[in-house]
Design goal:
Strand content: 15-25%
Shape: elongated
Distance between the termini: 69 Å
CATH class of the largest domain: Alpha Beta
Oligomer: single chain
Order of helices and strands: HHEEHHHHEHEEHEEEEEEEEEEEEEEEE
CATH superfamily of the largest domain: Ribonuclease T2-like
CATH architecture of the largest domain: Alpha-Beta Complex
Number of domains: 2
Helix content: 10-25%
Number of helices: 8
């Protein structure tokens, strides 16, 4: 029955084909798991620790402090009241007290439930749910051990849970470091009991953390165009969780969230108590974070950054740059208009305000680059800056308080695509694949 319960939840587990090995730091991913260094997940600056079994003396002391469990409980902690145990990683924790380290997790008493958001070609799990990575036991100071007991490692977990190789990695690397899952902590021999408990607790905790729904409730949904700030994402998650988690990004895209717990009474029969992050921190940028949809490949993946707030030219002769800017307040990184009036990722051209012809609207200007005055080509409605334009034929631009440009009331511009290494024409009007406004930013 335990295995069947897990089987129904396997779509939420990250498949091995979609995931190799993820480390907290930006370490290179090993090509072969056997080449993982023993300290690959330890805090920077700490000496490497050999992945051997926990100190046998400590295990013996835990056993000696633990009476045989009562009937009806899985672990020896059932002999005590919940009030007999303090939360791990708090002043009340007492690994030498009732039940020893079976009932007070130590040294790995800070539990992290980690989730992945795998999008694009690496998509995994339902499109409207994050996926479970694992349950990690950290030391109370956020350092950690791994591969703690080779004698309990498994290589054939597929036959136990009918899952995949990722489960073997999670159990061997993290599960063996949870002291309350030691075989001595169970009231009676139970084949693979500690392994099944580990995955059951991982899955049940994961189910209590609907990150997708929490984000969506605050309007944060996967999209190929919009970007979000770190403050927005953390606010949405903290509001529902009660404590601030850690978010992680890869190449500017939201990819992980870590929730933190203390344990009370061990993992088997005890509880996980929510707490705030310790030691670990987000590596996401403050702004411009992408949250990409699963199972879609954007032909022009955005590499957006927050828009620059512009301003209208205050007089003729003011030089500035012109940035295509999306309606969500973002723009393509390092992309702007160059001297001939096309959109390009490279060095921006200077656009200088010029006094317009008599009778033009108050506060309006024409613009000029090294290529000439700027205007709209009648043949295809394309924006251009060229010597062929004269004061009579060049466009007259009006500007709002934030530098957004318009021509005769038309403020929408667009292109057929986002520039890569090529130069992309800019057209007046919204009937294009990529729509934006043009913003003048004085220099």
């Amino acid at each position: 029955m335990l295995a069947l319960t897990l089987l129904s939840l396997l779509p939420l587990l990250v498949p091995a084909s979609a995931l190799t090995v993820r480390t907290r730091a930006a370490d290179p991913v090993p090509a072969d798991l056997t080449h993982l260094s023993n300290g690959a997940r330890m805090a920077r600056g700490l000496p490497l620790r050999k992945p051997i079994a926990r100190d046998e003396g400590a295990r013996l002391r835990a056993r000696q402090a633990t009476p045989s469990g009562t009937v009806g409980t899985l672990s020896v902690c059932g002999n005590y009241q919940a009030s007999d145990f303090g939360q791990s990683c708090t002043a009340a924790a007492n690994p030498a007290g009732p039940g020893g380290t079976c009932c007070t997790d130590s040294p790995g008493g800070l539990m992290l439930l980690t989730q992945f958001w795998d999008a694009g070609a690496a998509s995994a799990g339902p499109a409207n749910s994050w996926t479970l990575h694992g349950l990690w036991p950290d030391n109370c100071d956020s350092t950690y051990e791994e591969y703690c007991d080779p004698s309990r490692e498994r290589s054939a977990i597929r036959s136990i849970l009918t899952n995949n190789g990722q489960t073997a990695l999670e159990w061997n690397k993290h599960g063996t470091c949870i002291s309350s899952l030691d075989k001595a902590c169970y009231t009676a021999p139970r084949e693979n009991g500690e392994l099944i408990t580990y995955f059951q607790r991982s899955v049940s905790t994961f189910q209590s953390l609907p990150s997708y729904d929490w984000l969506a409730a605050d309007g944060i949904i996967p999209t190929n165009n919009a970007t979000y700030t770190s403050a927005q994402i953390l606010s949405a998650l903290t509001k529902s969780y009660g404590f601030t988690p850690v978010i992680r990004c890869q190449s500017g895209s939201l990819s992980e969230v870590w929730y933190f717990y203390n344990s009370k009474g061990g993992i088997v029969d005890g509880s996980l108590v929510k707490t705030g992050a310790v030691g670990d921190s987000s590596n996401c940028p403050a702004t411009g974070i992408r949250y990409l949809p699963k199972y879609t490949v954007n032909p022009n993946p955005p590499s957006t950054v927050p828009a620059i707030i512009g301003a209208p030219p205050s007089a003729a002769g003011v030089r500035g740059f012109v940035y295509p800017t999306y309606s969500d307040g973002s723009r393509e990184d390092r992309a702007c208009l160059i001297r001939v009036g096309v959109w390009f990722k490279g060095t921006c051209a200077g656009y200088t305000s010029v006094t317009p012809p008599a009778g033009s609207p108050a506060g309006s200007f024409q613009l000029q680059t090294g290529g000439g005055l700027c205007g709209i080509l009648a043949a295809d409605n394309r924006f251009s800056c060229a010597a062929s334009f004269t004061a009579a034929t060049a466009a007259v631009f009006q500007f709002n308080a934030e530098g957004e440009m318009s021509i005769m009331g038309q403020e929408a511009f667009g292109s057929t695509k986002v520039p890569g290494t090529d130069q992309v024409p800019v057209y007046l009007g919204p009937a294009q694949a990529v729509d934006y406004s043009l913003v003048f930013v004085p220099q």
